[in-house]
Amino acid sequence: MDMTAEPNPLPGGVPAGGSASVAAPANPEPLLRLRGISKHFGAVQALYGVDLDLPPGQVTALCGDNGAGKSVLTKCIAGIHEPDEGEMLWEGRQVHIRTPKDAASLGIETVYQDLALADNLDIVQNMFLGRERVSSVFLDEDGMERAAADTLAGLRVTTVRSIRQPVATLSGGQRQAVAVAKAVMWNSKLVMLDEPTAALGVAQTAMVLELIRRLKDHGLAVMVISHNLNDVFEVADRIAVLRLGRMVAEDWLSSFDRQSVVDFMTTGGSSRDVLASGSSHDKD
User: Fold this and answer.
1) In CA terms, which of 61, 157, 190, 223 is 20 to 30 Å from 239?
2) Strands of the sheet with 221-225, listed across from one edge
3) HEC profile of 116-183
4) CA torsion angle for 19, 25, 26, 29 (degrees, to 10)?
5) CB 9 within 8 A of CB 16
């Protein structure tokens, strides 16, 4: 990614303060399509031929028990791990994501569970950390403040007292909002959120789930990695379930209930009317 480029003040290019959103087509072509992704670490096979579609304007929940391969798959998309086998198609063309810089250049941003925020810096400094704007030989503080404020306003993040307050003073929900706003500033098209509501209270969880809906409304593809099925059924359009490194189910939310998701996570199958992995893919 060109770090000197102007940040996109809002996902989908919607003017700050505007209420317009990008309507996703009923059956959009996947922004990112994974086919046959495998990854091993020495003798340990972490992923076995995983297929996954991530359409724009939709929230895909990636579910699975501990050790299912969710983090490995996410890191393959984010450029931290390079797959051993398989292909990735981005907007219909094959790509090779070997580094986080490769992912960022495509418009892929990841918000990890630890959020990667610096407590001693304020909101603006965190949002531009490593991507600071310079005017002449000085930091463009005014420009960065305006861009940060526009992004937060567009996502309707109104609970922070000041964009110059230290991140250490923010609540868990506010910190998550800042991390998401930081992720979508730079022309992002796909945002991946790792356990975004972990350790949050009821009110803060509701705030973060509403933020996820706004990302979808602005036309972004969103992948949420979560163990919390209440949150999944609150915001997801689609569900994908990994078990022991294999994709065992992927379909629309309406094809699942909570028990069927648990069944797939724990046994790899379900007696309920849920389509198994690959049934919703258009095989080439």
Assistant:
1) 157
2) 108-111, 190-194, 221-225, 59-63, 238-243, 246-252
3) CCCCCCEHHHHHCCCCCCEECCEECHHHHHHHHHHHHHHCCCCCCCCCCCEHHHCCHHHHHHHHHHHH
4) -140
5) yes
Asked if the model's pLDDT at residue 278 lies above 50, the reply is no
- Rounded CA-CA distance 41/24 in Å is 38
pTM of the predicted protein model: 0.81
Which residues does 134 contact at the CB level (< 8 Å), separation at least 6?
140
CATH 3.40.50.300 domain range(s) in the chain = 26-107+189-284
Q: What are phi and psi of 196, to 5 degrees?
A: -70, -20
End-to-end Cα separation, the chain, in angstroms: 31
> For residue 27, is pLDDT > 70?
no
- Beta carbons of 55 and 78 less than 8 angstroms apart: no
CB 192 within 8 A of CB 78: yes
Q: Residue 159 has what pLDDT?
A: 84
Fold designation for 26-107+189-284: Rossmann fold (3.40.50)
What average pLDDT score do residues 6-11 get? 52
What is the identity of the amino acid at 264? F
The answer on pLDDT for 281 being more than 50 is: no
pLDDT in tens, 189-228: 999 999 998 878 888 888 899 999 999 999 999 999 998 9
Quick one: tokens of 213?
């809906």
